[in-house]
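In this section we walk through a basic example: taking a raw amino acid sequence and producing a predicted 3D structure, encoded as discrete structure tokens. The instruction is simple. Fold the sequence below.
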Amino acid sequence: MVNLIPYLRLFTLSYLLVQGEAFWSTPKYNQVRVGWTPVFSTATHCEISDSLRSALKKPSKNLAVVLDFDGEEQSSSDISTLSMQLRKLKASALATSDLGVAKDFVKEQASAQGNFPGPCPIIYTGEDVHGAAEAGVSAIVTYDCSINGVDVIQKVESPEQVEMAFSNAFLVESSMEKLDEILAAIPSGSVVIVSVKAMQKDNNELEEAKELKLKGTTAILFEKACVGDGEDLEYSSFVVEGLTKKKSSTFNMSGLTGSTNGHFGGVATSTSTSWRRNKN
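The resulting token sequence is shown next.
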């Protein structure tokens, strides 16, 4: 009788070696971060929804405009009114790190279902990602791909993080030292959001955005575009017009009433716009 035990041992050892290699090489065990704590993602890949993708990667190849709210505490009524007005200005998406503001945005945008323009996606950039997911935001900026029911945008700070990425939507700060390398490392066809500072000197953010478009950027997030002051709507209209219309980047707005009916004035060509907010 043939002794099969040595053959069984060899087969078992070979099987374990193969499985072990697969275990450690599978992308779902790549190391990612939640906040500043390294963890292991439990998902292989996070594909964002078609609706969010179409909002942040325009078929027309125009840059999508994401308007960030980061200001003093406002009433829910004021935030809802702002949300409605930004939608009528045709913002591509709204962003905030304030969970309360995110909730008000979500509620107001939902009221536009079936209307034109329709609801803007809400992108949450704060820490309470689970609370934001429960609130119904469209997307969260996080390193965790295990949160259900919400699209994930991954913030990356180096080409190496791009290589380990699990999402096909990325957020990069324009101030990153290796910005060009990071953008070059992002796979073709991805949603690429770059955040820039609002109200720069000589309206340089518009020229910066156009340069970023040439490097593969699909959307610009204007940091602190809205802070709860009297220039929120004027500035928001300025950047939306500046990046989606074939007009000069040196213009300012006329006839902006800021009224809740959402009707705003036109564009008057002039010198670079100077913002009162920067003088405070």
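Looking at the output, two observations stand out. The two ends are 94 Å apart (CA to CA). Residues 85 and 259 are 8 Å apart (CA to CA). In the next section we compare this with other chains.
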